[in-house]
Amino acid sequence: MADTKDVVELILQDHRRMEDLFRRMRSVEDDRAGALREFADLLIAHAQAEEAEVYPALKRYKNIDDEEVEHGAHEHDEGNEALLGLLEVEEVGSEEWDSKLEELVEAVNHHADEEERTILNGARENVAMERREELGLAFVRERERQLKAGCGSLENVRKIVES
Q1: pTM for the complete prediction?
Q2: pLDDT on residue 63
Q3: Positive or negative torsion for Cα 70, 74, 80, 86
Q4: d(C-alpha 18, C-alpha 38), whole Å
Q5: b/e map of 93-110 (b: 16 or more CB within 10 Å)?
Q6: I need a labelling partner for 50 at 20 to 30 A (CA). Which of 6, 42, 65, 89 fits?
Q7: Which among 7, 3, 2, 1 is positioned nearest to 140, based on CA atoms?
Q8: How far apart are the first and last CA of the chain?
């Protein structure tokens, strides 16, 4: 991971890590359950940090579409629901596992693609680097807080989805 404070780059790094974890979860030669645990923590911490620190700040910029920011938060909910579905599968590598994994991949990749094209490009064009670095520090701080709290546990993901 590059040593950056830019919130846009930090979010992109998380997206690329999620793609790597998807590859590991699909591979019969890998520790698929371990990759899912890491993915669950990262997805929840990432989304919670975006919603707490990044999205509210970006909504203040006139050239960043508020509807896209709201839509991004809604897509986090869809990703969380898909994650819960996979976490609840009993047998790693079963047909149900593969099916639920593909639902998760689709939900997260759709969100990441839209977020990169709309919200993050808008931030690159309209938010000064100094402010993006401030947001990056806040994003990392909240993401780390979430990770330390075990945010990707089945119980926590269920609580988030049900709230």
Answers
A1: 0.93
A2: 63
A3: negative
A4: 9
A5: eeeebeebbebbbebbee
A6: 89
A7: 7
A8: 33
